Amino acid sequence: MTDHLDLPTPPDGIRLSPGFSYDQLDAANGDLLLAAYTRVDTATQRAALQLLGDIDVRSEAWFRDRLAAAIKQATSERQRPAIHLDLHSIAYFSAAAAGIFAGLTATGTTLVIHRPSRIASRVLTLSGVLPRLHVDPAEPPL
After folding, report:
1. Distances from the Cα of 99 to the Cαs of 12, 32, 120, 124, 133, in angstroms?
2. Greater confidence, 68 or 7?
3. Is 0.70 topped by the overall pTM?
């Protein structure tokens, strides 16, 4: 993990706008595993999650639950939502995380990856999932 993960407040580069919710998963020793800033816009059927930390076996279920909640909030009766994930502060990204992304695209959810970290890009490329995703180097729209 990088040093900035030990800070109790968001590090530089993570913006917290009005309307965002914050949640985090900590290890048994109190270290931050994964944090998510989430905002759902039901009018446009979009959700944005800005993530910080590691998406691995320890945080996979927690991450899946946060994604499911955002999808449920943003989904209308007529169509699946667009989910925007900002991955620039992801320090570790497992193949299981790539599997979560592949599963979402198979359900018809539009998944847009913003500013993927080097490790996230590499795992998504090696797993063959990257071509199924929309990649945007800009910050998420919400």
Report:
1. 29, 23, 12, 9, 12
2. 68
3. yes
